[in-house]
Amino acid sequence: MFPQKVWLSSPTMHGDELRYMTEAYETNWMSTVGANINETERLACELTGSGYAVALSCGTAALHLAMKILGERLYGQPRPGHGTLEGRKVFCTDTTFDATVNPVAYEGGEAVFIDTEPDTWNMDPVALEKAFELYPEVRLVIVAHLYGTPGKIAELREVCSRHGALILEDAAESLGAAYEGVQTGRFGDVAALSFNGNKIITGSAGGMFLTDSREEADKVRKWSTQSREDAPWYQHEEIGYNYRMSNVIAGVVRGQFPHLQEHIAQKKAIYERYREGFAGLPVSMNPYDSAKSEPNFWLSCILIDEAAMCRTVRSDKEALYIPEPGKSCPTEILEAIQGLNAEGRPVWKPMHMQPIYANNAFITAQGTGRARTNAYIDEGSCLDVGADLFRRGLCLPSDNKMTPQQQDIIIETVRACFE
Ligand SMILES: *Cc1c(COP(=O)(O)O)cnc(C)c1O
Question: For the residues of 168-223, what is the DSSP string, one character each?
């Protein structure tokens, strides 16, 4: 057992973070205004190439206001008390964190989930095309890059532009990842970043809205500070939010930015060490298109070959498996990793399998698909891609402070699961 827990992905501080936080303290810029915020926004624009950035309290807030601004661009201002997406469908990445898709509901819209492709574990452009055949009226697509791996961006963009749809890019997990030399966060009509504690760089919390429109950046900044009008008193013409980033948090983000490339290099080394360590095992790493993309390698994952899966049953809250020589399953491996005092995690459970989205449509590359909230997944062959990744995949400890010796012990432990 490791004396100190090896985390999935935990914050890694370097010193400058404290200096900028202290600067905020000593100059008394202890609010949602200050030099750290301005500089953090500048750094986000410099990295991604985005025209404007608005620092917000978290990635979820950035996604919400991004959704709202695109909703307004498409459908105009809503009636007071109504969401911008009321009665509208939005196509969404299915295999992701629920923060990607919840903002559709915040704005009164209805998420339609698009199945995942096996090549990068992101939204399948073929399934997206099918979705437009079924729902030609849809004009908004929200795309995430899973675990720091850029999706099939060119294909997704082609499908969207052919159908006149806008893209909201959720780059929360992929800061610093590039596709054809262009940074993620640059492909959507607008995009959201996250500086949550487990992301590749962090402010302990924090998020960022990216756009090329000055007008939209101004609007999002205004919404995020309670929608105050330019008047001597508190004058309100629109619903407001308290979503702005604190200048103290911004100090942490500011101090982290110069270390992004170093974190990526560490994460990449972890990914490569796992890949070499698992040679000969019936598993594969989370894949990426090495010709087109450079992931940030935020999390290293494995997918167990179908033939090497022992029998498993998962209910909504529990998992069981029958151990078998030469075979394993995510639950067995995660238990073994936990036994080392390390942290792993199943692959995101797809949104179409979540009880909260039981009634939402789900579209696969075959143009079919139904929401399945339940449950007892045992036969691999008839599953959609997202359910299959959830059934056979897991995230490994990917903390950039993990030593090579610790990682080798994790590798040996995983190998032992297949004996
Ligand atoms: C972390 C994450 C978010 C949310 O970011 P917060 O800063 O935690 O609100 C959104 N989408 C994805 C894909 C994420 O991984």
Answer: EEE-TT-TT-EETTEETTSSSSEEEEE-BTTSSS--BSBEEEEES-HHHHHHHHHH
What is the rounded CA–CA span in Å between residue 192 and residue 176? 13
CB of 59 sitting under 6 A from ligand 1: yes
Q: What is the CATH number of the domain that holds 68?
A: 3.40.640.10
For 137, the domain range is 16-259
> What is the sign of the dihedral through the CA atoms of 408, 409, 414 and 419?
positive
Instruction: Per residue of the chain (419 residues), give pLDDT as tens.
Output: 999 999 999 999 999 999 999 999 999 999 999 999 999 999 999 999 999 999 999 999 999 999 999 999 999 999 888 999 999 999 999 999 999 999 999 999 999 999 999 999 999 999 999 999 999 999 999 999 999 999 999 999 999 999 999 999 999 999 999 999 999 999 999 999 999 999 999 999 999 999 999 999 999 999 999 999 999 999 999 999 999 999 999 999 999 999 999 999 999 999 999 999 999 999 999 999 999 999 999 999 999 999 999 999 888 889 999 999 999 999 999 999 999 999 999 999 999 999 999 899 999 998 776 645 444 444 444 579 999 999 999 999 999 999 999 999 999 999 999 99
Taking CA atoms only, the protein residue closest to ligand 1 atom 11 is 100
Give the Å distance between the CA of 193 and the centre of ligand 1: 8
Residue 166, SS3 per DSSP: strand
Tell me if 207 CB under 6 Å of ligand 1: yes
Beta strands 178-179 and 182-183: pairing type? antiparallel
- Select from 204, 232, 259 the last residue of a domain: 259
248 C-alpha to center of ligand 1: Å? 20
Question: Separation of 100 CA from ligand 1 center, angstroms?
Answer: 7
Total number of domains constituting the chain: 2
Is 232 in the same domain as 355?
no
299 and 231 housed in the same domain: no
pTM of the model: 0.96
Rounded to the nearest angstrom, the distance between the alpha carbon of 103 and the centre of ligand 1 is: 12
Residue nearest to atom 2 of ligand 1 (CA): 172
DSSP letter string over 339-353?
Answer: HTTB--EE----GGG
Q: Are residues 93 and 141 in the same domain?
A: yes
- Does the CB atom of residue 196 touch ligand 1 within 6 A? yes
CA of 91 to the centre of ligand 1 (A): 18
